[in-house]
């Protein structure tokens, strides 16, 4: 399967990606002319506390738990780029290198909790004009 979402261009609020033909997405397929666009968004490049410091790349433990940060991917073991020592996308070339809007080199695990319940008034479930129960939620 060739991924497409990670190859959409332009990147969110950033530059256009270098084109990658479907046949050249896998890292195993030679593509000597591949020249990905390097991009790290300004808020990430400003080195907030939640982002990796590029000066510390050599000390990062990829494909493992690195202190309190899990740098292992849920999709499998990823390879490192021989030129930079940075993780490669497990699903192949994307036309871009760098972190974009993500703070970490490699996997950026996240969870978006949602709490829901049926709307109640006086212990009774509230329904809409069609008789369907009304769902309330909090997204964080």
Q: Mind explaining what this structure looks like?
A:
By secondary structure, this protein is mainly β. It is built from 1 helix and 8 strands; from the N terminus they run E-H-E-E-E-E-E-E-E. The protein has a two-stranded parallel sheet with strand order 1-4. The radius of gyration is 21 Å and the shape is elongated. The two termini are about 30 Å apart.
Distance between the termini: 32 Å
Q: Please give the largest β-sheet.
A: 2 strands, parallel
Relative strand content: 15-25%
Number of helices: 1
The coarse overall form would be elongated
How much helical structure, as a percent, in the residues? under 10%
Low-confidence stretches: none
The secondary-structure element order is: EHEEEEEEE
For the structure shown, list the relevant keywords.
140 residues; mainly beta; two-stranded parallel sheet; two-stranded antiparallel ribbon
């Amino acid at each position: 399967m060739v991924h497409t979402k990670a190859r959409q261009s332009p990147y969110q609020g950033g530059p256009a990606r270098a084109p990658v033909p479907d046949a050249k997405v896998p890292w195993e397929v030679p593509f000597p002319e591949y020249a990905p666009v390097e991009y790290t968004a300004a808020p990430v490049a400003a080195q907030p506390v939640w982002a990796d410091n590029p000066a510390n790349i050599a000390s990062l433990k990829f494909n493992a738990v690195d202190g309190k940060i899990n740098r292992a991917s849920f999709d499998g073991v990823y390879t490192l780029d021989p030129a930079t020592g940075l993780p490669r996308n497990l699903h192949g070339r994307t036309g871009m290198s760098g972190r974009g809007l993500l703070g970490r080199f490699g996997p950026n695990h996240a969870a978006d909790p949602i709490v829901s319940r049926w709307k109640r008034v006086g212990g009774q479930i509230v329904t809409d004009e069609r008789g369907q129960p009304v769902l309330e939620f909090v997204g964080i």
